[in-house]
Each structure stands twice: as structure tokens, then as C-alpha cells.
Specification:
Layout lengths: L1 H41 L4 H10 L2 H11 L10
Helix pairs in contact: 1-2, 2-3
Length: 79
Amino acid sequence: MLAEWITDDFWAGFGIIGIIIGLVLLVFYIWSVVWAYKDANRRGKPGWLVAVLVALLSWPLGLVLWLLFRPNTTTLSHE
């Protein structure tokens, strides 16, 4: 009886933690796609294309590739 209660309680807690981790990852995923879009626009590249590539190209890999190969300069002038 006690072992069943501990096992059920463990899996219930793991489910809540899993949901929280999943939500945090979802928020980070959405934020990174929006950031890549805005960053590409600032650098004179098509923002929608970069956002789609970051979102669909094995997500973390797409973000890392954009960080490595993005242009160094922005199109906005800082006066």
C-alpha cells in the first residue's frame, strides 16, 4: 500500500515538473524565433525567412547557425 502511494505520488510530481519544463521550453522557443526575426530585420536580412529557418531547422541548431553566420553590422545608424 505504502509503495503504491509513493510511486503514484512520484509520477504525479514528475508530471507537474514536466509540464513546467515544457512551458519554459515553449516560451524560450517562441522568444528565440521572435528575437531572430527582429535581429535579421535590424541587419538588413529577410526576417521572416530567418525566423522560419530558426523555427523549423531543428530549433536549437537553427538558432546557433543564425548566431554564427549573421552579419556583423546592422542597418540602423546610431547617431
